[in-house]
Structures are given as structure tokens and as C-alpha cells.
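Team,

Forwarding the record for the chain on the shared tracking sheet. I've put the sequence and predicted structure together so nobody has to dig through attachments.
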Amino acid sequence: MNFAKRNKSIVDFLFILALFGAFAITALFVVLFGARIYRSTVSNMSTNYEKRTALSYVTEKLRSHDHSGGVDVASDGAGNSVLELYQEYSGKKYVTYLFVADGYLKEFTAEESYDFNYGAGTEILEVSDFSVEKESDSLYHFVVKDANGEKTEFFVTMYSGTDGDEDGQ
């Protein structure tokens, strides 16, 4: 028997070519599906980052102004919520405003007597909407919509309240 010499036919060649083609197409689909999953994961991570950043930023701002008369909610005249954070420094009273303008959550700090301008402020995060409601003396309800329109709602509890009691009792 002569195993070294074998008759090769066109069928053998076509079978190997078809097998290679199937492998190449499968590899292409794996790469395309992987790219789609990666793109989706990156988009979700970015959205989650923006949500967590907005939540953390607002919460920390409120916590740093957690004293009697330190937090108030106002309106900008166009129906948008403005969070006003009050503090006293070197005998002067200052107000930090958190608001939405031009598609961004913005912050602006000035003396209390300053006439506030909604066109001013430092851009913090790209959002399409920001609203805050005072549910009680110590509970605030926030709704933030990111640039993609995804809504995040959260509540923040203040410990001092607004009854003039600085230690929250």
C-alpha cells in the first residue's frame, strides 16, 4: 500500500476552501459582535459615570451646607429649579447656585447681595434637565436627566433641618 501517493481531486480542494471560508466568516462575526458589545459597554459605563457624578456632586454640596438656613430651593422664572446653598465666610454671606443652563448643570458662587445671572456659572456636567423639590424640612428630591435623556431620581436627607437647630435634634 502506498499511502504517500494519493489521488487529489477538486472535491478535496473545494472542501478545504469551504472550511477556510466558514472559519473566516465565523471569525468576522465574532469580531463584529464583540465590537458591538464593547461599544454598548462603553456607552453604559459613560452613562453610569455621568449619573453617579451628578448624584455625588449634588449630595456632597448639600452635605457641606447642612446647617440651619444653608439650603433653599428657588425657581429661575422659567420654571427651572435652582438649588441655593448659603454659607458665611469672613463675615460675608455667599450663595452658591446649582442650576441648568445651556445643556449643563452649572454652579455659580457670589455674595448674597449680587444680582444672579443665569448665563454665568461654571459648567459641571452635561445634562438636559435638573430639578429639585423640597419634600420636607430635611428631605430633598432630585431628578437629573443626562444628555441622552436618561432620568435619575434620588433623595437627599439633611440632618440639621430648618428649625434653627444646628445639631439636628
